[in-house]
């Protein structure tokens, strides 16, 4: 584990936001999320070092990309819609964090030359297009080569986001696009409802902190899309959060979070039947109301620009 300064502004002045365990793979390991008091970026501190991270990405983490093939194709189509205005003859796309390589393959089918970056040893091998198996900031490309660089839910995973923004500006062609999706630290899902994938998510961005990163690298933000069209981060337990904040007047902690229905059944060795589900409803009325009203609240979040997921589109100037 390592203690770090703020990656964006270099400050060591930060405050605790919340603590939670790794709920996917190492449930007894807890991590602290802090917020920089100077610039507002959130990050895990202390955190696993770069060499320790393989432990938190077992091969089963990548099984998701093999499930629901039709659903993924729909997502790739929606992702491709953010890539507009590129008129280059030989269009070259670099996908950072390409996992098993399916998004670049989709883009290749619609006329793009593709390359990828994937550092995990546990992802599926890729042999049908060029993939750099090293940190993006260290790839052997130092001149403008790419018309578009994408990073779908990647930047929150990296140890040094600043080097990524700087490298994007270095290898992106003039007028090229940098399209990337991250979670939104201003949303209650990210900041208060424990919806981040800790410790695989190491950094938590807002539109303001993204603009700071882009300005430092010489890139310009041209679009911010707060929606669930690609990924979702549903504000599960939003009603509980507001009751704790405005009625009980105290901070919602991990220990205050209720079991979901399946966790409830497993802990009590109950079968998934009508009787058990009725028992859960009776003993968890607040959770039931939360879920019933969830679609309405989620739409309000999207409409107000407070949703937990945001896709940014940035451009490099024509002058480079």
Count of alpha and pi helical runs? 9
In CATH, the architecture of the largest domain is 3-Layer(aba) Sandwich
Please name the CATH topology of the largest domain.
Rossmann fold
How many domains? The number is 2
> In percent terms, what proportion of residues is strand?
15-25%
The total strand number stands at 11
- Element-level helix/strand string: EEEHEHEEEHEHEHEHHHHE
Largest sheet: 7 strands, mixed
CATH class type of the largest domain? Alpha Beta
Q: How is the largest sheet built, in terms of strand order?
A: 6-5-4-7-8-11-10
Give a quick set of tags describing it:
320 residues, Rossmann fold, seven-stranded mixed beta sheet, four-stranded antiparallel beta sheet
Structure, explained:
- With 320 residues, this protein is of the alpha/beta class.
- The protein has two domains: 68-233 and 305-316, Vaccinia Virus protein VP39 (Rossmann fold), CATH 3.40.50.150; 238-301, no CATH class.
- Helices cover 29% and strands 21% of the residues.
- The protein has nine helices and eleven strands.
- The chain has helices spanning 69-80, 102-109, 161-171, 188-191, 207-217, 238-246, 261-267, 274-283, 285-304; strands at 14-21, 30-36, 42-44, 92-96, 113-117, 130-132, 146-152, 172-183, 203-204, 219-226, 309-316.
- The strands form two sheets. It has a seven-stranded mixed sheet, sandwiched between helices. Strands 1-2-3-9 form a four-stranded antiparallel sheet, with no helix packed on it.
- Strand 2 (30-36) and strand 3 form a beta hairpin.
- The model has no long low-confidence stretch (mean pLDDT 92).
């Amino acid at each position: 584990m390592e203690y770090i300064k703020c990656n964006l502004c270099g400050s060591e002045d930060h405050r605790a936001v919340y603590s939670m365990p790794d709920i996917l793979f190492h449930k007894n390991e807890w991590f602290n999320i802090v917020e920089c008091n100077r610039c507002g970026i959130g990050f895990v501190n202390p955190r696993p070092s770069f060499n320790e991270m393989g432990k938190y990405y077992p091969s089963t983490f990548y099984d998701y990309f093999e499930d629901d093939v039709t659903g993924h194709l729909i997502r790739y189509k929606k992702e491709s819609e953010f890539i507009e205005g590129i008129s280059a003859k030989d269009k070259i796309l670099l996908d950072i964090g390409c996992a098993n390589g399916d998004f670049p393959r989709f883009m290749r089918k619609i006329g793009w030359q593709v390359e990828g970056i994937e550092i995990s040893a546990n992802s599926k091998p890729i042999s049908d297009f060029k993939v750099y198996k090293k940190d993006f900031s260290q790839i052997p490309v130092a001149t403008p080569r790419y018309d578009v660089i994408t990073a779908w839910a990647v930047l929150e995973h990296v140890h040094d986001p600043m080097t990524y923004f700087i490298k994007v500006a270095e290898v992106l062609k003039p007028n090229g696009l940098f399209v990337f999706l991250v979670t939104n630290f201003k949303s209650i899902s990210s900041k208060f409802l424990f919806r981040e994938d800790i410790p695989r998510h190491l950094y938590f961005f807002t539109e303001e902190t993204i603009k700071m990163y882009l300005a430092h690298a010489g890139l310009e933000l041209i679009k911010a899309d707060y929606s669930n069209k690609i990924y979702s981060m549903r504000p599960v337990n939003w009603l509980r959060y507001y009751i704790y904040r405005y009625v009980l007047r105290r901070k919602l902690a991990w220990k205050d979070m209720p079991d979901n229905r399946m966790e409830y059944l497993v802990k009590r060795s109950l079968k998934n039947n009508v009787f058990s589900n009725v028992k859960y409803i009776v003993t968890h009325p607040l959770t039931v109301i939360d879920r019933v009203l969830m679609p309405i609240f989620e739409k309000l979040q999207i409409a107000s620009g407070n949703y937990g997921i945001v896709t940014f589109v940035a451009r490099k100037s024509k002058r480079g």
